Amino acid sequence: MPFEGVKIADFSWVGVGPITAKYLADHGATTVRIETTSPMDLLRAIGPFKDNIQGPDRTHFFGNMNTSKLGVTLDLKSAAGLEVAYRLIAWADLYLESFTPGTVDALGIGYEKARTLNPSIIMASTCLMGQTGPAASFAGYGLHAGSIAGFYEVTGWPDLPPDGPYTAYTDTVAPRFLAAIVMAALDHQRRTGQGQHIDASQLEMALHFLSPQIIDYHVSGKMGTRNGNRSETAAPHGAFPCEGDDQWCAVAVENDQQWAGLRRAMGEPDWAKDPGFESAEGRLAHQDEIEGKLSEWTRSKPPKSVMEILHSEGVPAGVVQRSSDLLRDPQLAHRGFFHYLDHKEMGTVPYTGHQFRIKGYDNGPRFPAPVLGQHNDEVLRDVLGMTEDEITEAIIGGALGS
Amino acid sequence: MLSPYTVLDLTDEKGELTSMVLGDLGADVIKVEPPAGSPSRVMGPLLENAPESERSLQYYAFNRNKRSVTLNLETEAGRKALFSLAGKADFIIESARPGEMARKGLGFEAMLQANPRIVYVAISPFGQDGPYADFPASDLTLAAMGGPMSLQGHPDRAPVRVTVPQVWLHASAEAAVGALTAHARMVRTGEAQFVDVSAQTAMVWTTLQAMSAHGIQGFDFQRAGTTVQLGQISFQMVYDCADGYVVLFPIGGALAKFIEWSTDEGIVPKEWLAAEDWSIYHFKVLQGETLAYPLEEVVDTVRRWVSGKTKTQLLEQSLLEGVPMAPVSTTEELVRFRQLEERGYWLQAPLPNGQEVPTPGLLARLTETPLKVRRWAPKLGEHNQEILGGMLGLSASETAAACGPAGS
Fold first, then answer.
1. Looking at the partner chain, which of B127, B164, B363 has a beta carbon nearest the beta carbon of A213?
2. What is the rounded distance in angstroms from the CA atom of residue A333 to the CA atom of residue A63?
3. How far apart, in whole angstroms, are the C-alpha atoms of residue A229 and residue B51?
4. Per-residue pLDDT of chain B in tens (408 residues, 90 and over written 9)
5. B360 and A238 in contact by Cβ < 8 A?
6. What is the pLDDT of residues A335-382, one digit of tens each?
7. pLDDT (0 to 100) of residue B228
8. How does strand B347-350 pair with strand B356-359?
9. How far is B318 from chain A (nearest CA, A)?
10. Which overall architecture, per CATH, does domain B220-330 show?
11. Which residues 6+ apart lie within 8 Å of A290 measured at CB?
12. What per-residue confidence (pLDDT) applies to B408?
């Protein structure tokens, strides 16, 4: 495993921090996820819940983000809990946290303290806005940062309020950058023994996904806005209704060859022979008409048939898939994307794997997410090497919370 | 941090962010382009008044911290130079259709001969093999096949993508993580690594709690317009304000605050405050418990409170009161956001048209190995001599043969 022997104290919560630590955990790092029982990780309160029965150990929102981790509950406001936190920081190569800026200092586990406990520690602090600046304390979620970044403005229909990307969008962007950053920092630490503090703003990382548009604004004053599924350079370009209940197939004709392919796929209907449609310019000018006609053709066919017919003529097309489709998608099955693992409370459930596959070993996840406090004993005894007396003392002191 | 390592970037717009991330983290990145330039050099948005191969802001945005060399890989001289560079590199990143590099004799197996410790990263729509590997694909169709479209858009209309293309950015940022994970394994084993990145699965991950939801709860989450679906119920998330829209999530402590402010302003009577434990109201909704006031009436109260205030007022109140309310920013509003300016986020970049403009900044702040933009996007073949002459020791005529005629 790539990160075998790497030790991570994951004090983070909700999305970005836990997803970042998951990369390392699934690929071999010994990862301790530290939680408190009050407040609990927000994800433990949000579904999907197994069989729709709510409970902190029944949500797969938490589950998918926290595979291959050992779970321990600590009361960081008790002296005994803080003592265990010190031991974890002294043990770890990487200490990850995502509290509101200032919180770790108030708790007594800020970077200065961490460095005295472990001079070569890498500490990564991530929050929406970064550790400094007038909005540092803005304690929102990825949907808020996604909105401030501009992703909401550019998702939806021009004549309707912005629908936005699905929920906490920057939580889907920031972990990719943050994981690369901490992996580079771990490589540097391995070679030089040097650790450091990382201040990673989720908004700042995510803005790279709008970079050309931001630069263009400064040059030309142009601002992007939401435009359904339309493209500035290609038509037809949209999601078209298919047979069945709310079934759709996305079709993107990006050049004249693909337009010819689409015409063949539809059986060369007369309406499509209009010479005005042969250039992208012409098709863009007549989008409403073309989309209407194409919808008439797709409506009577299942989405998968539309996709297959178009693929046979070289036209990019894709069924609009939901979770139920993904779980039986033959390509994802071929890649072994979903791992079925036996969770302590939920039983055998599908865990989502990684978006890259490295040849030669099982890329994980290695084991299911912990139920609250599942590995309290194991972490204190085996990971931290505490004696029975020390463990008893910690528990009596309230280290593990209520 | 990655300064000991060299990256060969053979990608186009589908992978240029990968090596930019590695370059930002310190690696020496060599952008290997065909003599005519990377296809991304003609992708919009485009600058006016700049040389033809330097007009693309897409290229400019994702190719900082790279040097450019042109190699004509149709010729023996060009291929030989590529293999020599591969021998000196630690990473190769490519985004060709599956099998294409192997057909040209430039795939993983060939590179392995040049460098038995290479980390080879291949980015593609669905992965290198499997039933969908050769499917024609685009940003839109991958957003469909990965799942996010099914969750985005008004329920009475078609599902939508993010209008600004996102798919290859997700896949290529993800590929940087794959590259460094494989590198860690190379360090342990001393063996070359092959990394197969699938854009479809990168899009699956953008659906967060929805991705395996059906296997857990027995039903799919659905697109819900400006609301967000929790369990079987949807909560309004996007609200009209005086000068646009604002995103907020009226549950828990935030809802308690909204109700308090609404009673202060006389939108609802004072007795609302005590009539309900607002911080757990959303749990009661989800569990179908008896409510003092129905959800629609509560959402309407929030709507009325928000409607009279401007984006700026709401953001200021967020910071003051700790209740997050986020304006739906246009680009103009984003670039004026005080937080980014006071953090010194924006980096002034010299564009090929002679203008200097603020561009997205460093990925993060590091105390011991601060990140840096050492150079902005290169001109086509700007470093041919430096790389082929300097690094490989080729003569002027050998360099010319390897690079091929410009623009061919």
1. B164
2. 20
3. 32
4. 999 999 999 999 999 999 999 999 999 999 999 999 999 999 999 999 999 999 999 999 999 999 999 999 999 999 999 999 999 999 999 999 999 999 999 999 999 999 999 999 999 999 999 999 999 999 999 999 999 999 999 999 999 999 999 999 999 999 999 999 999 999 999 999 999 999 999 999 999 999 999 999 999 999 999 998 877 778 899 999 999 999 998 888 899 999 999 999 999 999 999 999 999 998 888 888 999 999 999 999 999 999 999 999 999 999 999 899 999 999 999 999 999 999 999 999 999 999 999 999 999 999 999 999 999 999 999 999 999 999 999 999 999 999 988 644
5. no
6. 999 999 999 999 999 999 999 999 999 999 999 999 999 999 999 999
7. 85
8. antiparallel
9. 7
10. 2-Layer Sandwich (3.30)
11. A235, A236, A272, A277, A283
12. 46
Of A26, A41, A93, A171, which one is the catalytic site residue? Answer: A171
Q: To the nearest whole number, what is the mean pLDDT of chain A?
A: 97
B274: three-class secondary structure by DSSP: helix
**Cis peptide bond upstream of B370, omega within 30:** no
CB-side neighbour CA atoms (13 Å) of A37: 16
Residues of A in contact with B345 (CB under 8 A): 201, 204
A166: closest CA among B207, B353, B393, B386? B207
User: For the domain B6-205+346-403, what is the CATH code?
Assistant: 3.40.50.10540
Q: Please report, for chain B, the start and end positions of each structural domain, with discontinuous segments joined by +.
A: 6-205+346-403, 220-330
Cα A12 from Cα A41, distance rounded (Å): 9
Q: Which of B93, B107, B96, B97 is nearest to B135 (CA)?
A: B97
Over residues A313-331, the mean pLDDT reads: 98
Q: Do B369 and A188 count as a contact with CB atoms less than 8 A apart? A: yes
Identify whether A329 is a catalytic site residue: no
ipTM score assigned to the predicted complex? 0.98
Beta-carbon separation of A219 and B334 below 8 A:
no
- Which residues does chain B have within 8 Å of residue A173's beta carbon, measured at their own beta carbons? 170, 173
Cβ of B177 under 8 Å from any chain A Cβ? yes
Cβ–Cβ < 8 Å for A364, A22: no
Region A97-117: mean pLDDT is 97
In order of A220, B322, B335, B342, B345, the CA distances from B338 in angstroms are 22, 17, 8, 6, 10
Per-residue confidence (pLDDT) for residue B406, from 0 to 100: 62
CB atoms A318 and B339 under 8 Å? no
pLDDT of residue B287: 82
Domains of chain A: 7-209+333-396 (3.40.50.10540), 237-320 (3.30.1540.10)
CB-CB neighbors (< 8 A) of B237 in chain A: 143, 164
From chain A, the residues in CB contact with B320 under 8 A are: none
Rounded Cα distance between B115 and A361, Å, is 21
Tokens, residue A400: 């593990």
Q: How many residues does chain A have?
A: 402
C-alpha distances (whole Å) from A160 to each of A225, B7, B223, B332 are: 12, 45, 15, 20
Closest residue of chain A to B205, computed from CA coordinates = A172
Answer whether B390's CB lies under 8 Å from B43's CB: no
- From the list A3, A156, A351, which residue is nearest B184 (CB)? A3
Contact yes or no for B181/B194 (Cβ under 8 A): no
**Residue A48 gets which letter from DSSP?**
P
Distance CA(A250)–CA(B312), nearest Å, equals 38
**What does the DSSP 8-state code read for residue B236?**
E
Closest CA to A175 of A377, A385, A22: A22
Asked if B49 has any chain A CB less than 8 Å from its own CB, the reply is: no
In 10 A of CB B217, how many CB atoms? 22
Query: What are the C-alpha distances in Å from B309 to residues A301, B175, B339?
Result: 48, 43, 21
